[in-house]
Amino acid sequence: MITVTEYQDDMELTEGYYSGVPNDVYHAHNSISKSGLDIIDRDPYHFFNQKPREQTRPMQVGSAIHAAILEPDVFANEYMMLPTLKDRRQPEYKQAVKAYGEGKVFTNADCENIDNIQKAVWSNTEAAELLNADGWCELSGFVKDPVSGVMCRHRFDKLTRDGWAVDIKKTQDVRSEEFAKSIYNYRYHVQDAFYLAQFEWLTGQQLKGMKFICVEEKWPHKVAIYQLCDISREIGANLFRYNLDTYADYKNNDVTPTNDTTTEIISLPEWVMRRYEDEII
After folding, report:
1. Which of 178, 184, 234 is nearest to 41 (CA)?
2. Residue 281 has pLDDT above 70, yes or no
3. Are 18 and 3 in contact (CB under 8 A)?
4. What CA–CA distance (Å, rounded) separates 195 from 141?
5. Does residue 233 lie within any of the structural domains?
6. Residue 220 contacts by C-beta under 8 Å, 6 or more apart in sequence?
7. What pLDDT, on a 0 to 100 scale, did the predictor assign at position 91?
8. 67 phi, psi to nearest 5 deg
9. Among 38-52, 144-158, 167-181, which is the least confidently predicted range?
């Protein structure tokens, strides 16, 4: 289906698919990701003036959950769980941090949450079939946009050999009407279209689609699996193309957006204006 290169230290990441790329190397690559497009969509000024990426504790927990679900062997070797430890000021925690690193050691409630989410996902029959399918986990891809020529990147949580992209999402509520809001708010439809497009640019092939394995963050960690409809993916494709072209205009012309603005007229939120009109009619 595809050729995958195993990453080696200090390897130059050119166009292609790579396994084992460390998170810091992936995020430091000189290319645009979906999260970068999200910032471009808000305002290019924010993108070109962002600070170096720093992992928060929730992000570290999220990384641990992904590892526990997708790569249990890696999780067992690279993470330290201290479920009986309640205070991170204790010597046991500090010793574990020296050995594993701050973002790889978890205590008490975090351990319970990571373990329960892992078990919940694997207890879902279709999720387990997707995760057990032959393929690659944490697969990083780098490719030039054929329209603008700028380098793009993406990382599949899992790519199965039979053509499915799989992505794991933590969420507050997996009910379809609620998760649809998350799709819009976090632009998962843009991710879907952008990832699948990059795969086609790299391989000349089309994937069957992307399946989102969604799991609730709180007990009892209900699981649901979704695949976007064609219209939603088309909207995502239009958005990523608009954002990518915006980025390319700045990048290719070596222009940096400024913070210079002029006065604009602003109103209260539309719902406030409507309520006011209803009250005075």
Report:
1. 184
2. no
3. no
4. 9
5. yes
6. 120
7. 85
8. -65, -40
9. 38-52
| Domain assignment of residue 143, given as a range | 4-252
Residue 269, domain member (yes or no)? no
CB 165 within 8 A of CB 223: no
Q: What is the pLDDT of residues 204-219, one digit of tens each?
A: 999 999 999 999 999 9
- Helices of type H across the chain: 23-28, 34-42, 44-48, 57-70, 72-78, 91-100, 108-123, 125-132, 176-186, 188-203, 230-252, 270-280
d(CA 40, CA 239): 11
Closest to 187 (Cα-Cα) out of 31, 22, 25, 33: 33
Place of tokens 């810091």: 24
- Output the DSSP codes for 155-196: EEEEEETTSEEEEEEEES--SHHHHHHHHHHHTHHHHHHHHH
Closest-CA residue to 147 (of 193, 197, 192, 191):
197
pTM comes to 0.93
Residue at 271 is within a domain: no
pLDDT value, residue 122: 97
230-263 pLDDT tens trace: 999 999 999 999 999 999 999 999 888 999 999 9
Count how many residues are written for the chain.
281
Provide the CATH number for the domain around residue 63.
3.90.320.10
Pairing of strands 16-19, 4-6: parallel
Within a domain: residue 267? no
Q: Treating both helix axes as pointing N-terminal to C-terminal, what angle do 188-203 and 176-186 enclose, rounded to 10 degrees? A: 70
Residue 153 sits at φ, ψ, to 5 deg, of: -140, 155
Q: What is the model's pLDDT at position 205?
A: 97
- The SS3 call for residue 153 is strand
pLDDT digit string (tens) for 148-173?
999 999 999 999 999 999 999 999 99
What pLDDT score was predicted for residue 54? 81
Total domains, the chain: 1
